[in-house]
Design brief:
The protein is mainly β. The chain folds into two domains: 4-86, Elongation Factor Tu (Ef-tu), domain 3, CATH 2.40.30; 97-160, SH3 type barrels, CATH 2.30.30.240. The protein has helices at residues 69-74, 97-100; strands spanning 4-14, 19-24, 38-39, 46-47, 49-55, 58-63, 79-83, 104-107, 112-121, 126-131, 139-142, 150-152, 157-160. The strands form three sheets. A six-stranded mixed beta sheet has the order 11-10-9-8-13-12. It has a five-stranded antiparallel beta sheet with strand order 5-6-2-1-7. A hairpin with a 4-residue loop joins strand 8 (104-107) and strand 9.
């Protein structure tokens, strides 16, 4: 099986006719339909997607095989995946979150700070959640060119110049 990337999640039913609330994790929310069919993480179900409208905090959509509100409600929380090779190629200095998770983080002096646990975005900028030995809690490292000058996906590492006192 090819590597899978999560592109969205079902947030429950929308209305009473089998539509679902869909959270899209793609750059342009509506482009999630371009990657269909979308599958569950284990690949046991696949869905063709027809977007019906934009709604608060997501999209309303029809999924193939889902015809009732009860079927839509039963899918609440299901994450939707596509094979990695179906995603578009990125330009230089652009990365998929999935590629950053697990990378080792070192400072500019070569000292290991930890590993990327997740990538978060709360509106202002992307943040790398770094976890490692010697850290009492995870550290949120701003993912900017100033703080993270080097990302080496092939080498499995990130070189960071964190603000003083962050680690």
């Amino acid at each position: 099986m090819t590597e899978q990337v999560c592109v969205g999640a079902i947030a429950g039913a929308y209305g009473v006719r089998g539509e679902v609330r869909l959270k899209s994790f793609t750059t342009e929310a509506e482009s999630i339909a371009d990657y269909a069919p979308l599958s569950t993480e284990d690949g046991s179900r696949q869905f063709d997607v027809t977007l019906t409208r934009t709604i608060k905090n997501g999209l309303a959509a029809r999924l193939s095989g889902v015809a009732t509100k009860e079927e839509a409600d039963a899918l609440k929380g299901v994450q939707l995946y596509v094979p990695r090779d179906r995603l578009p190629a990125l330009e230089d200095d652009e990365y998929y979150y999935a590629d950053l998770v697990g990378l080792e983080v070192r400072d500019t002096g070569g000292t290991t700070l930890g590993h990327v646990k997740s990538v978060q975005n709360h509106g202002a900028t992307d943040l790398l959640e770094v976890h490692g030995p010697g850290l009492k809690a995870t550290v949120l490292l701003p993912f900017t060119h100033e703080v993270v000058p080097t990302v080496d996906i092939a080498g499995g590492r990130i070189i960071a110049d964190p603000p003083e006192g962050l680690f």
